Each structure stands twice: as C-alpha cells, then as structure tokens.
Amino acid sequence: MTLTVNDVKRIADLAYIEINESEAKETLIQLSGIFNLIETMQAVDASTVEPMSHAQSVVQRLREDEVTETDQRELCQSIAPQVEAGLYLVPQVIE
Amino acid sequence: MQWEIVIGLEVHTQLSTRSKIFSGASTAYGAPPNTQACVIDLALPGVLPVLNKGAVERAIKLGLSVGAKINSPSIFARKNYFYPDLPKGYQISQYELPVVQGGSIQIQVDGVEKNIRLTRAHLEEDAGKSLHEDFHGMSGIDLNRAGTPLLEIVSEPDMRSSAEAVAYAKTLHALVRWIGICDGNMQEGSFRCDANVSVRPRGMEKLGTRCEIKNLNSFRFLEKAIDFEARRQIEILEDGGTIRQETRLYDANKDETRTMRTKEDANDYRYFPDPDLLPLEIPQHWIDRIKHTLPELPQVRRDRYVSEFALSAYDASALTSSRETADYFEATVTQLPAQAKLCANWIMGEISGQLNKEGIEIAACPINPEQLAALLARISDGTISGKAAKTVFESMWNGELDKNVDAIIAAKGLKQISDDSAIEKLVDQVLAANAQQVADYRNGKEKAFNSLIGQIMKATQGKANPAQVNAMLKKKLAE
Question: B359: distance to nearest CA of chain A, Å?
C-alpha cells in the first residue's frame, strides 16, 4: 500500500493531531516504513494459526456484582482544573 | 416503481446490575453528578478494569432466551474515539467473539408470525453525559453513567416495515424485562434503538445504501423516524439521485431526520483486543446453571395459553406482554379454571384500563388475583350481571368493605333476579302497563320489543337476568 501526504493529513485529522507540511512529509516516511514492515509480515502464511487475543494464556477473573466504591467526588475533583455544580468543566465540544 | 423498505435494529439495553461493568461504583439512576464515578470510571492512570459477573450472566440469559450461541472464549476490544464524556479515549466493547452470537426473535404483525434473526449481542460500557448549557462556554461532564453495563443487541436486516420494526422492538423490550436483565425504562435511557434503514426496488436481491438513525428512545419515534427516512430515500431515488451512507438524527419536533455525519467523516474506531482484559471463558456448567434459573419464556407461555386455555393468539399475546400480567392472569385462572376467557377479558379490559388511567403497574394493582377471581365467580354463577360486576369492581378498587365481593353485592343490592316466577311477575306487570307497545310489537314493530325490555330492566334497576327476561318476554308475547 502506498501512502500519500494527503492520507497522513487525514489520519492526523481523525486523531485530532495538528500537523504542518514538513511534519506531514517526515511522518509519511516513517509511516511508510511501518507499512513495509507490515507487508513483510503479511507474507507469512498464518491461516492455520489461531488469532491471539492476549499475550498470556490465563482467563479473565470476574467480580461479584456488588457496590464496593463510595463517593469520592471531593477527592477526585480536588485535582481537576475546573469544576462547577459537581460537574467537570471542559472546553466545549458539541458533536 | 414498487419499493421495499429494509430495516435492521441495534438496541442498547442497560443491564440491571447493581454495580458497573468494570468497577464497583453504583449504577443507581439520578444521583448527584459524579458521586458514582470512581477512579476507574474516571480513567485515572494505573487503574484496571475487572469484569462484573452479573453483567456476563445477564448477557448469557439473553443468549439462551433467543436460542443463540454463547461464545467461549469471548473477547473485549477497545473502540477508540475522542469525546470528553469518554475519559479513557476508548470504549471497552466487543468486536470479534461477542458473548452472544446468532439467535432469533419471533414477532407478530397483524396476526402474522415472522422470525427476525439476530446477528449478535455484545457487552460494552456506557459513556458519561455532557451538558452544554449554562457553563459560560464550557461543557459540564457527569461521569455517573460512565461504565454502566450495556448489552447491544444487533438484528439482521430482516424487517420490511416500520410496523415490523416496532413489533420487534416491543417484543425484545418485553423479553429483556421478562428475563430480568433490564428494567426497560425508556425515559431513563435503559432501552435505546438505532435503526438502519435502506430501500430497494421490490424483487431486487441487493441491499440499497443504508442510513443509520441514532438514539430513538420511544416506539412512536422509532416508527415515525423509519417512515420519514424511507420516504426521503424513495424520493431521492425516484428523482434519479443516490443515497449517501450516513448517520442521521431524528428531530421529533419537526418529524424529520437530518444528517449527523457522513461516512467520509466517520471515525475509524481502530478496534483491537483490550490488553487490560483477559479472554472471558464461559464454562458449560455456568451456562447450564443459568438455564435452570430462566423463567418460562413469553413465547412458550403464549403457546400454552392457546392450547391449555383455548384463548385466541391475540389474547394470549396481550396477556404475555409482561411477566407480571401473565402471572396475574395465571393466579386468577387457577381459581376459576373453566373461565379463562372471562379472566382474560377482565384483565385486559377493566384491570388494564383502570391501571392505565391511574398510571400504575399491575404489581401495584389494588385488586389481587384472588379478589378478582371471587368477583368473576359471581358473574359465572349468575349472582350478578356483567354490568353490576363493574359496579362491584369499582367499589373493590376503592377499597370499600375490605374488597369483599359478597359484602359489596349485598350492601349495594346488586344481586341479580334470576327467579323465574319473580321475572314472570315483572314481565306481566310491564306488559299490562304498556298495552300500546304490545299491540305495536304484534303488528310487526320490532322496536317495541327493546323498549319493553328497557322498561323491565328499569323497573328492577338493571338487576333482572337479561337472558331470562328476554326469553320470558318472547314467550309471553307469543301467547
């Protein structure tokens, strides 16, 4: 797969990363390198290998459905930059 | 051209666990902002999710109820997107190997049965809530809802009309409440629908380009949004245009859908297995144990009501619309096994009407099944007429005389006159006093008969057994 500078800009846009022209060109080189690596790996026939979902062969431990956490709002909000009426305030984002 | 509408639904059901899916914070609705958002829900550095057994159990329950495959192992994945009410920057969801795969749900539209296939149902966490008003240009974030367990139930594109989509949503809604995995409260967002809608020329195999309508939180909006969207797409195609794949929002005030984002702007969610969560193993003995705790399912009960009590499919469906209603019916009919139809009529008529009027659930019905059965027994043994029974019902509802049926009948003098000689005497009296109408009837004026019946009923304040009065009057007039 051949990547273009426009692809890099679009990926940056989706990732909410601000990027200038020279950074885009530099990133294109690095990303293309990664794509080449992926292409090399894809040449390996893995059709008989079961996909691995986790590096360790252990299974998920489960919790009983019980409320164990108490209200720590004051403590948690003590490190927040801005709070009001119990809410965390952030720069406005409307989808 | 004849168009065919094709609909698939994605339903987010909020699971009725006490605690969140990956943390021990409470899921109770309506708490002050951020008082139920612990460090895991806030995604502070270094925290790890631990899966709630209750959430998995509820997903398995649904899977068993719809005849689906339960995947083991089942895998959790990160769905990456950026939004302030999602503090981790990703939602923990499932992509490959969801807990529930396949299955189907039986729906009925206008008496016709139809099978709707399910694609899958997967576990995921809900996001928080953003408030955009009143914060001097800032957004306020409440993370109480963040981490609430959801089961997203995805159907195949098997529905062909808004009526079928609504029937499916209602059947699913009844099912999740029936098996006790979701409270179904649509106002509080416990049951939310997204609809995928496309149209194609009738007879064509290939699906048209679809649009997804997000967040429909009532059955009425679901129906209206689909109808609007299908009309919109047909108009575009008939004008020679093409449909753009996009996500749309339904505006209930204007009764229309409008673009939220197009496919080009869509996020690439970059799904990958969540390294913080290990594969979920669901051993067969766990599935078997859950199977034993499942109640008799609505579909099974419905069929049983038809075969065991000779009720119509319509009655049986109405009675199994909720487990509470079905249990109420069964408790009533146990007392009066020969009068299933009478029990069904009263539960769907008087009881349900009165409950609706007062906005209460059947579980809080002031008349219990035993009391209703006692009342119905007095109709079936001829002690009171159906009309008088309604008066007794009202008194019972209002708690008069300890809801004792016989005491109320006696106190109100509602006992039906069924004694033949008493009725004969009454009929004779009325005939003697209305010689003109008797003559009219005998001269062929049919209406005079009803007028005479009316007079007799009036003379007894409606207490005479109508069937007997009718027969007696006919006999006397024929003499």
Answer: 32
Lookup: tokens for B432: 């003697």
Per-window interface: A 28-47 vs B, CB < 8 A: none
Residue in chain A nearest B266 by alpha carbon: A14
Task: Tell whether the model's pLDDT for residue B462 goes beyond 80.
Answer: no
Residue B366 lies in a domain: yes
Q: How far apart are CA B145 and CA B125, in angstroms?
A: 9
Domain count along chain B: 3
B404-428: burial string, b at 16+ Cβ within 10 Å, e else: bbeebbeeeebbbbbeeeebeebbe
Distance from CA of A84 to the nearest CA of B (A): 8
Cα B95 to chain centroid, rounded: 29
The confidence score (pLDDT) of residue B277 equals 94
Strands A62-63 and B51-52: parallel
* A85 vs B contacts (CB less than 8 Å): 33, 140
Peptide bond before residue B157 is cis, with ω within 30 degrees of 0? no
Alpha helices in A1-95, H assignment, sequence order = 5-14, 21-42, 73-77
CA distance B229 to B212: 10
The residue-averaged pLDDT of B312-330 equals: 92
Which of B260, B286, B312 terminates a domain? The answer is B286
Please say which residue of B286, B312, B327 terminates a domain.
B286
- How sure is the predictor about B416, in pLDDT bands with cuts at 50, 70 and 90? confident
Q: Please compute Rg for chain A using Cα positions.
A: 23
Name residues whose C-beta falls within 8 Å of residue B195's C-beta, 6 or more positions apart in sequence: B7, B8, B9, B10, B165, B212, B213, B216, B222, B225, B226, B229
For the question of an ipTM over 0.85, the answer is: no
Q: Which domain holds residue B376?
A: 296-412
